[in-house]
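WARN  no MSA supplied for this record, continuing single-sequence
INFO  ligand: manganese (II) ion
INFO  echoing inputs
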Amino acid sequence: MQRLAPALQQDDVSLELISLIKTILAATKEISFRVGQGHLGGLLGSTLDENIQGEIQKKLDVVANELFKDIILESGFVKAISSEEEDTSVAGNENGKFLVSFDPLDGSSNIDVNSLIGTIFSIHKAPKDMSADDPDMFKQAGHKQICAGYVLYGPSTMLAMTTGKGTHFYVLDRTYGGYLLVERNVQITKDTQEFSINMSNQRFWQSEMKNYVNDLLLGKNGVRNKDYNMRWLGAMVGDVHRVLCRGGIFAYPSDSRDVNKPNKLRLMYEANPMAFLIEQAGGLCVTREGRIMDIEPIDIHQRVEVILGSINEVKACLKYYD
Ligand code: AHG
Ligand code: MN
Ligand code: MN
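INFO  complex generated
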C-alpha cells in the first residue's frame, strides 16, 4: 500500500510542503475522530455566535477551525492562514513559505443529522515582500495554488488531494493512523446523466440556468435526449466527491434571493481548491464568464458562481449563456 505518494513524490514538491501537508492531515485526523464521536463528543448543536458571513456557527465549525488554525500556525511553515470562520487572515511565521486557506467544516447544516461533512484546504506560496499580517497576500488566483484537497468525514474518512499532477484519493486507515492511496489519477467521466443543484432556488435563478435545468428535467422527451437523475447533499465536499467518483454536474448559480449576496460559495476556500481537484481530474470548473481559477481575488471571503464537473455537460450548460 502506498501512503501519501504519489501526490508528494514529485520533483517540485519540497520537503517543507510535504511537512505542511502532513501537518494539515494530522489536524483532519483529529477532526475525523471528533466527528466520529457524534452525540458522545458534546460537539453537536450551535454556538450563539455568527461568523463574518452572518451565519450562525456550529460548535463543530468553531472547534474544527481552532484545531486547524493552531496546528497549522504552530508548524512554522505558514506565513498566514485564512478561514471561513476568521474575519480576516491570521498571521503566522514571518519567514513561513506558505499561505493556507481553509473551510474547516463544510456542510455545517449536516452536522446535527449525522450526514456528510468535510474540510477543504488550499495552499499558495507566500509572497516574500509582504508582511505576515497583510491579508492582501491572499489575493492570488486559483491557478497559483500549489496544493489543494478535501477530507470527507463519511462512512470512511477520505482525502482527495492534488499538487498539480493528477488528483488522487486516499482513505484514513485507523489501524496505521495515516492516509493510504486508494486511487491514483482519478478521471471524471466526460458525459453524465446526473446533476446536482439546489432546486428550491429555481425561481430565483436567471433565465439561462432555468432553461438548462428545464431541458435536463425533460429528459428523453427534450433536446438533451437522455434522462437525468438528481442528487444534492448540502455539502459541497460530498457532491464534488461524487462527481469525481462517477461524473456529474454540480452547480451553485447566481440567484436573486438577496441582492447583496448573489452567490453562495466562497472563492478562496471552496471554489478554487475544488476547481484545482476537478481540473486535475479532467473536468471543468467555471462561472458563466470563464475559468474559476483565473479569477483575481479581491477579498478573502468573496463569493462566486460555480458550475463544475463532467466536461461535456459543463460545456452543454455554458451554451445556454452564449
Ligand atoms: P458551509 O457549511 O461551509 O457554510 O458550506 C455550505 C455550502 C456548500 O457546502 C453546499 O454545497 C452549500 O453551501 C449548500 O447550500 P444549500 O444550503 O443551498 O443547500
Ligand atoms: Mn463550505
Ligand atoms: Mn464551513
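Residues 15-37 form the longest helix (23 residues).
INFO  checksum written, moving to next record
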